[in-house]
Fold this protein.
Amino acid sequence: MIQWLVFLLFSALAVLSALGVVLLPNPIYVILALLSVLVSVAGIFFVAGAELVGALQLIIYAVAVTVFYVFVLTAVPWEKALKKDSHYRVEGLLSFPLVLLLYLEMLFVFLIGVSVSPKGQFREFIVKFGNTEVVGGILFSKYFLAFELVSLLLLIGMIGAVIIGRKEAQTYDNNTP
Amino acid sequence: MTTIPLEAYLIISVVLFGLGALGMIVRRNMVTVLMSMELALNAVNVLFVGADAHLNLVDGQVFAIFVVALASAEAAVGLGIIIAIFRLRKVDSTDEVVDMRG
C-alpha cells in the first residue's frame, strides 16, 4: 500500500516535470525540471528494489550530468535563445498526433506482451545477498566483456570530447561555404 | 516484495519516452534537445528496472547501469559538439545549422 503511494507520488512528479522539460521556454528552468525528473526516476528505482541503479542515478545523473549541462549553458549565451521562439510550434502541433498514435500503439503492444509474459518466480538469493552484491556478481561474470567494452567506450568518448572541444584557430560565420 | 505490476512501469516509461521524443522534435535550442534525449534514456531505464522487478532478475539493472554510462558519454560528446558549433558558427538553434544541406 505504502509502496503504491510512493510509486504514484514519484510517477506523478516525474510526468509533471517531464511536461516542464518539453514545455518550459527558459533553458535554466528546463534544467531544473530535468533534475526533478531524474530524482523522481531514482525514487521509482528505489521503489522497484533497485538500490544500486537508483544510487548511481542520483550520483551520476542528478549531480554530474546536470552540473555539466549547467556549465554548458554558461558557455552558450542562452539570453540570445530567449529572444526567439523556444519551440517549433507548427511542427509540434503537426507531429503530436503522429507521436501520440505511435506511443499508444507501443503501449497497446506492451500491455498485450505483459499479459502473456510469465512472472518470474521468487528467488531468495537476491534477498539473501542483497541487490548490490547480486548486480555486481552478474556484472563481473556474465556481462564482463560488455563492462570492459563500456569502459573502452567511455575512454573513446573522453578523447572525442577533448578533441572536439579544443580551440580552433579560425571561426566562420554562418554563410561561408 | 513486488506489489506494483509491470503495467504501471510500462505506462510511466511510455509516457516519459513519448515526452522525450516530442521534446526532441519540438525544442529549438540544441541543449534542450539533448536534455529531452536524456529524458528518453531515463524512460528506457525505468522500463528495464520495472521488468526486473516483474521477472525477479537483475540483468536489466546491469543494462540500466550500461545505459547510464552511455548517456554520460553521449552528454559529454554531444555538449562538446554543441560548444564547437557555437564557437565556430555562433549559432545555438537547430534551424540555423544548415551547413550540411547539400
User: Anything to note?
Assistant: Chain A has a mean pLDDT of 83. Residues 147 and 153 of chain A are 10 Å apart (CA to CA). The two ends of chain A are 63 Å apart (CA to CA).
